[in-house]
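Quick one: structure tokens for this chain, please?
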Amino acid sequence: MEMLPYFYRCGEVKVKILHVHNASSFSARLLEYTDVGGCPVPVPDEYLTVNMAVYSHYSEERNRYKLPKMIC
């Protein structure tokens, strides 16, 4: 049996709710969790770095792919 990380089995997590899909489903970003000793461990936020890299890549016309128009 595969062991899950500590914070999946017990402890606390701090999340930021990003989107509520419906009454029982939401998307969230993990901000921090508590380790075995009970100390908070921040989770690095790479969202901004990834977002800027994607924006920079597609800002160049040659990196864009245009789909042909389809009539259904």
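The CA atoms of residues 56 and 62 lie 12 Å apart.
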